[in-house]
Write a structure and sequence with these properties.
Elements lengths: L2 E4 L1 H8 L3 H8 L3 H8 L8 H11 L3 H4 E4 L2
Antiparallel strand pairs: 1-2
């Protein structure tokens, strides 16, 4: 089955930003953020995606990947 991968970890590494920093700056609960980092989510929060795109100055296609298994 295919799945979505949110490239949060990759984006954090590319921009040299820690999880603590982004969670604090975007007011995101760390537990929820970690689930997104591990692709352990059932639904995607559109507000979170908008915040991340604005923060990383990217579009949705650069942040989310469709992975065929």
């Amino acid at each position: 089955m295919a799945h979505l991968h949110i490239r949060i970890v990759e984006m954090l590494q590319e921009h040299n930003i820690s999880k603590n920093t982004i969670c604090r700056e975007l007011d995101i609960p760390r537990g929820n953020f970690n689930r997104y980092c591990r692709d352990e989510f059932q639904r995607i929060d559109a507000n979170l995606i908008c915040k991340l795109c604005e923060y990383f100055d990217c579009n949705v296609g650069e942040l989310i990947e469709y992975i065929k298994d």
